[in-house]
Structure formats: C-alpha cells, structure tokens
Specification:
There is one protein chain. With about 140 residues, the protein is mainly alpha-helical. About 65% of the residues lie in helices and about 0% in strands. The protein is built from 6 helices and no strands. Helix 1 packs antiparallel against helix 3 and helix 3 packs antiparallel against helix 4. The radius of gyration is 16 Å and the shape is elongated. The C terminus is likely disordered.
C-alpha cells in the first residue's frame, strides 16, 4: 500500500512538471512579442484582424491546450495537491483573457476538461459548461 502511494506521488509530480514545462514554453512564446501577455492576463481584447489576431489566436489555442492538459492531469491523479491551485489559475487566466473566453465560446468541444473548472463564470461569458463530473 505504501509503495502505491509513493508511486502515485511520483506520477503526480512528473505529470505536473510536464504541464508546467508546457506552460513555460507558451510564456516564452509570449515574450517574443511585446504586449502579448496582456491578451491573456491583462484583459486586452482580441485584435480585429490581421497577423496580430492570428498570432494571438494561435497562442490562445496553445495556452488553452496547456490549461486543459493540466486539468486532465489533475483529474487522473486524485492525490495531487496542486489540483485546487491549478483550477484557480485556470479560472483566473480565463477571467483575465477575452481571447480565451472567445476561443472557449467559439469551440467549447475543443477543451471540455477546461470548461469543467468554470461553472461559476461560464454563464456570464456565454460559455456552455458540461455538468460537473461526480467525485470518485
């Protein structure tokens, strides 16, 4: 029994590290373009058209992928102590990003696990949220 707990803890740490590494990669891409961070953490609206819009949407899709991956990892590893903080980070980021809200509204089926952590704010953002998954 103790060996299983240790194995689960190691798996949780490794999976969490993978998600955080992916998040760092997206942040590094943001740093390559001045002002990009504001689209995801500073309420800057999605550009109307042109190359900037395409760049912002692509980074938004990458960030949504990472956020959803983190939610998925924490659902699969119930002993992870970072599940609550990760869900809070996801909610904060989506609340701060008209770009992410736009993507989630336009493509709710692309990130269903991410939508599962948003029941408190989804109706206000016009997002359709699946019912909560019952606790195991």
């Amino acid at each position: 029994m103790e060996q299983a707990k240790v194995s689960n803890a190691v798996a949780a740490a490794a999976a969490n590290d993978t998600v955080l590494r992916s998040l760092r990669e997206v942040h590094a891409m943001m740093l390559q373009h001045e002002g990009m961070r504001a689209y995801f953490y500073g309420d800057r609206p999605l550009p109307g058209d042109g190359p900037e819009r395409e760049r912002v949407l692509t980074l938004g899709e990458l960030l949504a992928d990472v956020l959803a991956s983190g939610v998925h990892v924490h659902e699969r590893i119930p002993d992870s102590e970072s599940a609550g903080p990760w869900a809070n980070y996801c909610r904060h980021t989506i609340r701060s990003s008209p770009v992410l809200r736009h993507l989630l509204h336009e493509h709710p089926a692309w990130w269903p696990t991410l939508l599962s952590v948003l029941p408190d704010q989804a109706p206000n953002a016009g997002l359709r949220v699946p019912p909560p998954t019952p606790a195991r």
